[in-house]
Amino acid sequence: MKKRRHIQMRLLLTLVGMTTAILLVVGLTFNLSVRGYIRSRVTAQLTSVSESVSSDRRGGRQGQADKRFDGRSDRIIGTTGNAVVLDKTGALASALDGGREAAAELAAYFSDHGIDGSIHYRILSLDSGKYAVSVADDPIQTDCYLVSYVDVTAILAFTTRINTGLFIIILVMILLSVVLSRHFAKDFSRPVLELSAFARDIGGGDLSPREFQFRDIEFDALADAMNRMASELNEAKQKQETFFQNVSHELRTPLTSIRGNAEGIVYGVMEPQNAAKVILSESDKLGGMVEDILHLSRIGKAAPEGEVEPLDLRELLSLCVSEQRMEAEGKGLAFTFSFDEAPVLLPIREQDAQRLFGNLISNAIRYAKSEIRLTCRTEKNAVYVSVADNGQGISEADLPHIFERFYKGKGGKHGIGLALAESIAESYHGTLTVRNDGGAVFEARFPV
Description:
CATH topology of the largest domain: Beta-Lactamase
Radius of gyration: 50 Å
Number of strands: 13
Helix content: 40-55%
CATH class of the largest domain: Alpha Beta
Structural class: alpha+beta
Strand content: 15-25%
Shape: rod-shaped
Largest sheet: 6 strands, antiparallel
């Protein structure tokens, strides 16, 4: 399990670590570049000194072996190159430049450590300073070596001062990054803590909106989203309360009727057969209402009843009409059909389709004056089914709420049927809409 840290500490460690790494890499790269450049310049200077002295000594000046050599200067890094001649034991054979102190110290060093011609670049720390040296065979004396040297004391001291300055700059920048990172981390974690507290309040049931003023757009967007969530949860809570209130009211009515008729039979104040018919009728209403509520609660949940299979909606609509034809004829209503000649297929569970379209037809029977028009067609990769009546239509006040659970318009029953129909349509990625056009027109659309 990974070690957990506060976001403030993680941000602090990340920013400080990244700043330190960048500064160290920059400082190291600069240092290596400067040292490499100095080495290349000094090496070139040593080579120039060695070649120049060798040329002079091979130029017929054997009798002038102790002739002074004019040092070679590098104008860029400010160093001067010279040379001495040492024998195979390291003893001083000739101080060509006349600098006896440096020559003596070089002779003493090589006398103690030995000398050979394999040294091409080496930094020696002597009493008089630091020298870069290279060793080559002397061109006129067989058992002697020509030692070229460059006094690098000043340039190395300069690089040391640069490194010291870089080190101080790096420390200052690290301390500054710690301070700024701490401030930034605290500034970043504060909105997170405030929004976390808001989330805890929402979880505890406090759904009141909060006012936040964050400098970051993302935190503002998150706060707005959480306020919208709290508002929607509050609305859902109110709807739930209304739902239970309406359910209690709607269930109480048939139960009261059933109880009253049952007591009438028990106390002999009602004719048993008539009372039993009322009880059966109210029981059917109660059972239908309970079934609708249970079906509505199962919409969108796993493992629904029945299999999804392509159904010809023309046949299914005809079946729904035949089930309610007696009630429609009792009110003097006639059905008219406008169906495609070809099968109108839709993958849907038969039970869901019967509840959806059965509720729409039942609603039309309740409000129609004389006619109910059913339309079923396939058009532009979609299936359309509409149920229209020639009643008074839906009032403008009721129209926006017609699909809300337990919302009852004028003449409504218990406010479940249309909410159930819309939920079924949406569970199959369809839509259910309503409009007034010579009466109420409900139209379901499903993509295919």
